Amino acid sequence: MTMQAMINEWYPVGLFSQLDSAGRTTALMGEPIEVARDADGNAKVTGGDGRVLPVRVRYGHVWSSLGEPKKELFPIPEADQPGRRFVDVGVVRVRCSPLRAVENFLDIAHFPFVHTDILGAEPHTEVQNYKVEIREEEDEVWATQVKFYQPQAAKSASGGITTEYMYRVPAPTCSVLYKTCPPRPSEWDVITLFVQPLAEDLCDVWPWMALFDDETAMTDLIHFQQTIFLQDRSILENQIPRLLPLDPGMEIPTRADLTSIAYRRWLKRHNYTYGAQLVAQ
């Protein structure tokens, strides 16, 4: 089982707002876990063998680890910014590698074909040049200067606009997306993908958003994001192989896949291989 390097990372295991003393049973990297509130109302996570696991509550979610995390959960400064609406989108279960789920989130080229007339539309299919780097100090993958025409970039958008994106991978199964905020052009909307690895080929995906949008009903914001991800799910569950190939020769990348290439390289560098396929079969 290729999980040793990833065992000391933080993973989302539930929405804090939905926890009660009865708790919920779920899994983390193949181990059954129990997520509940204790007598003081604090989140508590228990492993299958009864041991109490590390816990953090951040970005609306409970986070835990089967190991001993060497660093704190990654920061999202916008989560502390006054005036933003924080949207707990819920959970979508996907029969795919948790690493595949993150990589799909980083893929811009599929917008016109999978999210037609929302995040993309033909003939606007070209991915313009953008910049990708592995930032050594933060040890994160970043893609910047990403621009794409979108018929409806956000629930708050009226009409099509060219949207600018920044993508950030701060942890092996998490990604943070910054995109043009239609009501406040000087700010970024923040949309995250927090992925809970249930097994190497099964995951729970917890999207979360921090937006400047005072107009849209919360249920509409949640529905918009769930619509997008359910469109992705059908693609993810049909990808072969189900695990994410890390051998560069196994899948042929294009110029639009620079973020994916950097993400795979970063995973290999850290031996983050739970959910990965290392050699061609």
Automatic annotation (TrEMBL):
It comes from the Bacteria. Keywords: Dioxygenase, Oxidoreductase, Plasmid. GO terms for molecular function: dioxygenase activity. This is Aromatic ring-hydroxylating dioxygenase subunit alpha. Residues 94-269 form the Vanillate O-demethylase oxygenase-like C-terminal catalytic domain. Pfam families: VanA_C. InterPro entries: Cholesterol_7-desaturase, Rieske_2Fe-2S_sf, VanA_C_cat. It is an enzyme of class 1 (oxidoreductase). The keyword Oxidoreductase applies. Its EC number is 1.14.13.-. The keyword Oxidoreductase applies. It comes from Rhizobium indigoferae.
